[in-house]
Amino acid sequence: MYQWACDLFPIYRSLSGDGVRETLDYIKALLPGLFIKEFKSGTKVFDWTVPNEWEIIDAYIEDENGNKIVELSKHNLHVVGYSEPINRWMMLDEINEHLFSLPNNPYAIPYVTSYYEKNWGFCLTHKQRESLLPGKYHVVIDSSFKKGVLNYGELIIKGSSNKEILLSTYICHPSMANNELSGPVLTMAIARHLSSLDLDNRYTYRILFLPETIGAISYLSQNLHKMKNNTIAGFVISCVGDQRDFSIIQSRSGKCLSDRVLIHTLKQYCEKPTTYSFLDRGSDERQYCSPGVDLPVSGFSRSKYATFPEYHTSFDDLSLITQRGLEESYSVMIDVLRILENNHKYKTSILCEPQLGRRGLYHKIGVENTGISHKKSSVNLMMDFIAFADGYSDIISIAEKIGCRATDLIDIAKLLWDHNIISIPKLEIE
């Protein structure tokens, strides 16, 4: 995963254009089942309009001696995203209105965009800005706009049920490692796991690589009906590559299946995962959970966007993310999906406690061969599971009640199922 991030880091991405297509081509090489699709510029999508494509070739500021002070070729964050073209000499006072820096973080280049308002600008460190002397400067932004397309990637992995789990991540930021690339590379790894193994998936997986905001809005404009009917859980994956604590951005309700399974799983990986309410939303959960859309979608992060000091700056580089950080996030999501795949509302088939001894179940499951992490004996865990298998409680809620991991109950449930001790009510809604 880390190497994928290294490969993708230099590509200049924005809402649309060649950088997005190059990124999607890279992803498709690793996920052959991915379909690269598009929305045409000018298409109305709910209250929005798909913008024109923006292309940037070069951008710089040079002084009267021909010294280039700020150069896009040196860092992709140096130009304001979607800047209009400009090529003229200007006085520093006039240029200053179009310069962006961070006085409180003087060695970092900020990330700034102007997608929907015509403007131009440069981003630079505050130290660079303070070094500019009064005088004339040559300002060049070689950019253009054209009627084109907004590209996105879609991978559908079929399961035995039409009910779906959504995985969504964004691909529209240039050269930021945690905020931009950690989400796509983790999602790629999950997708490879789901599609390369001969898994008998219960659920269908809808996996999306989109430009943030406008991409999700555009996608929902064409797929909302199907998604509302079929989505049982979903996750926006963002900022998952560092080694800080995990966090969840809850859905609007704060209690959907995605919220429940992610909070439960995160508690097994860190002592106090940070839980953010929907008031702290900021990525595409804003669209998926908006009134009238109402999809059961949570946000999954380590350091949530807009909370870590490197966010939206040049300090969010490849040194901020690690292979270990990505692998730990991968483990979380694989556990989440495994729980969802097995999250039935089991019901005991026997009145009163079953007699486990005559079925040889007292020692059938052992901690040593199942990876069960709970301090109770496997028999006690089995009996507790049976005691709460009332046909109304799913594995997540039972695990919470008896104080164990939901993953610990999966093998137990399969064993009890094989011995006809539990069943799944016919009316259970998938």
Written account of the structure:
There is one protein chain. Helices cover 32% and strands 21% of the residues. The protein has 430 residues and is α/β, with parallel strands linked by helices. The chain folds into 3 domains: 2-51 and 149-341, 3-Layer(aba) Sandwich (Aminopeptidase); 53-146, Glucose Oxidase, domain 1; 347-423, no CATH class. The strands form 5 sheets. It has an 8-stranded mixed sheet, with helices on both faces. It starts with a helix and ends in a 7-residue tail after the last strand. The relative contact order is 0.12. Mean pLDDT is 94; it is low at 366-375.
Topology record:
Layout: H1 2-8, H2 18-30, E1 35-40, E2 44-45, E3 48-49, E4 53-63, E5 68-71, E6 86-91, H3 92-95, E7 99-100, E8 122-123, H4 126-131, E9 136-146, E10 149-157, E11 164-170, H5 177-196, E12 204-210, H6 214-230, E13 231-237, E14 247-249, H7 257-266, E15 274-276, H8 285-288, E16 297-301, H9 323-341, E17 347-348, H10 367-370, H11 378-388, H12 395-402, H13 406-418, E18 422-423
Helix pairs in contact: 1-5, 5-9, 7-9, 11-12, 12-13
